[in-house]
Structure formats: structure tokens, C-alpha cells
Amino acid sequence: MRARYPVHPWLRVAATVGLLACVVPLQAGTQVARGASIPYATPEEALNALRALPQVREREENDWVVLQDFQQKVFWSVTTPANGWHPSIVRRELVSHDGDVSVAMQVRCGASRAACDALVETFKASNESLHMRAKAMADQQASGQD
Sign of dihedral through CA atoms 54, 59, 60, 64? Predict the structure, then answer.
């Protein structure tokens, strides 16, 4: 019999967001995260500031630098110069309300308007997929299954 260790539900959701952030590219637009903003003017400024935070973990994939702040439940995706959406920054935050988990997103995109609109649409789809996975995990945990 294998020993089972409890895993905090936010960790599962955070891991899912992190994976999706790598697999699904992000784009720009005008979506605003509740109570949050992107305080960085450029990808370079964002990377310098976020890399200075000890709780942030970083990886690079598909011309994106993905930074995860598990304490704040915030995930940043920052374009590299090789990315077609450069210079862009996407901030996604897991928000819990009335037992449901959603993803609040804000985008700062420096590409063309059409490219930025495509970026936002790509992330909207990613956020919906993430929401469904988070909901399924929460429902599974509530029912006592694992």
C-alpha cells in the first residue's frame, strides 16, 4: 500500500497554471485583473523585478519566460525578443470566490493590435481550460476522492 500525502488544492491548480502558461502562448488586450495591474513598462523591467523576488520560480519555454509566484498565486508570462508578440507581459492570478476558482488576467502587449487581440483570445481559451481543470480538482477533493 502506497502512502498518500495531502496536496494543497492551490498547489495542484498552480501546477496546472504553470503547465498551461508554457504550452499556451499569451497575448495582449484590455482585460483587467481585479485589484491588480502590471506595474512594469517593459518585459526587461518585469524580468528584473520578478527575478529579485525569492519566492518566484522561473523557466523559459517557447519564447516565453514564465515566472511563478506561488505565495501570491500569480503567474507571469514575459516574451523574449524571439517571440512574435514581443514586447508583451501577461499577469494571471488565481482568484477564489464562493468556492470557485477563476483566473484574473491582465495583458500589456506591444505588438500590433491584431497580434495583441490574438494573444488575448489565446489566453482566454487557456484560462477557460484552466478554470475547468481547477473546478474538477475542487469537486474531486470535496467529494473525498483523489
Answer: negative
64 CB neighbour count, 10 Å cutoff? 24
Q: What is the pTM of this model?
A: 0.71
Rg (C-alpha) for the chain, rounded Å, is 16
Backbone angles phi, psi at 102, to 5 degrees: -130, 170
Q: CA torsion, points 107, 35, 97, 26, in degrees to nearest 10?
A: 10
Who contacts 101 (Cβ-Cβ below 8 Å, separation ≥6)? 13, 94, 95, 131, 134, 135, 138
- Beta-strand ranges (E) seen in 8-119 are 56-61, 64-69, 74-79, 88-97, 100-109
Q: Express each pLDDT in 28-82 by its tens digit.
A: 333 333 446 899 999 999 999 999 999 999 999 999 999 999 898 899 999 999 9
- For cell 507581459, the residue is 89
Distance CA(99)–CA(92), nearest Å, equals 19
